[in-house]
Amino acid sequence: LAEGPLAGRHVLVTSGPTHEPIDPVRYIANRSSGAQGTAIAAGLRDLGARVTFVTGPATVPPPPGVTVVRVETAREMLAAVQAALPADAAVMAAAVADWRVANAAGQKMKKDGSGKAPALEFAENPDILATVSRMTEGRPRLVVGFAAETERVEDHARAKRDRKGCDWIVANDVSPETGIMGGSENAVTLITDAGAEHWPRMGKDAVARQLARRIAEALA
Ligand code: C5P
């Protein structure tokens, strides 16, 4: 049996990008590696939590010792999250595509020789973080979202926390000059009810361990 401050707790973590199909062989994606979500799942596991790790097609492998649920699209991710509940806490670290292709083709799209390019239409994806945060029954006690911003990080993160209805936001600056996106380090601001905490720049593993400790304290 697991030991540690999170023993007996179930924590749900989303991670990685989503892939949104254009046709059976093509998709729209983003550059999320899944590194931070993977580290958080490992950090929670190390404190004794039972972790369900719902991951899109990430470039880093999922951590051992957690229940892995692999998904492709945002809609699949939402369904997997709902199937994995109830949970004591949910950490939504996935980089979910905001839009899916509304007119995705059932067969591989072909050039028809006319020289005319196809036009993609988009439809908004469900917001998984907002959906879970606003559950009226069976809401996890602690819902944590992420905010990747390139400017006015704290302001945008506070607004995001209010808009989505989550308890905490882990905000970071993903401007290209920071090297954070796809890199091994992160510099985050944790937004809670009590205000904003600026954490020093540290490895993504260290951010994950510290966040897991804070989650354990909040659930204690
Ligand atoms: O709105 P934005 O994408 O910046 O919000 C980021 C946060 O919301 C992350 O925690 C992300 O996992 C979550 N999110 C989600 N479902 C979406 C979009 C974002 O869960 N469709």
UniProtKB/TrEMBL annotation:
GO terms for biological process: coenzyme A biosynthetic process; pantothenate catabolic process. Its EC number is 4.1.1.36, 6.3.2.5. One of its GO terms (cellular component) is phosphopantothenoylcysteine decarboxylase complex. Pathway: Cofactor biosynthesis; coenzyme A biosynthesis; CoA from (R)-pantothenate: step 3/5; Cofactor biosynthesis; coenzyme A biosynthesis; CoA from (R)-pantothenate: step 2/5. It comes from the Bacteria. Its cofactor is Mg(2+); FMN. Residues 6-217 form the DNA/pantothenate metabolism flavoprotein C-terminal domain. Residues 11-220 are annotated as: Phosphopantothenate--cysteine ligase. CTP binds at D98, K108, P126, D127, I128, L129, F146, K160, K164. Keywords: Decarboxylase, Flavoprotein, FMN, Ligase, Lyase, Magnesium, Metal-binding, Multifunctional enzyme. It catalyses: N-[(R)-4-phosphopantothenoyl]-L-cysteine + H(+) = (R)-4'-phosphopantetheine + CO2; (R)-4'-phosphopantothenate + L-cysteine + CTP = N-[(R)-4-phosphopantothenoyl]-L-cysteine + CMP + diphosphate + H(+). Binds 1 FMN per subunit. One of its GO terms (molecular function) is metal ion binding. In the C-terminal section; belongs to the PPC synthetase family. In the N-terminal section; belongs to the HFCD (homo-oligomeric flavin containing Cys decarboxylase) superfamily. Catalyzes two steps in the biosynthesis of coenzyme A. In the first step cysteine is conjugated to 4'-phosphopantothenate to form 4-phosphopantothenoylcysteine, in the latter compound is decarboxylated to form 4'-phosphopantotheine. Catalyzes two sequential steps in the biosynthesis of coenzyme A. In the first step cysteine is conjugated to 4'-phosphopantothenate to form 4-phosphopantothenoylcysteine. In the second step the latter compound is decarboxylated to form 4'-phosphopantotheine. This is Coenzyme A biosynthesis bifunctional protein CoaBC. It comes from Aliigemmobacter aestuarii. The gene is coaBC. The chain holds residues 179 to 398 of 398 of the full protein.
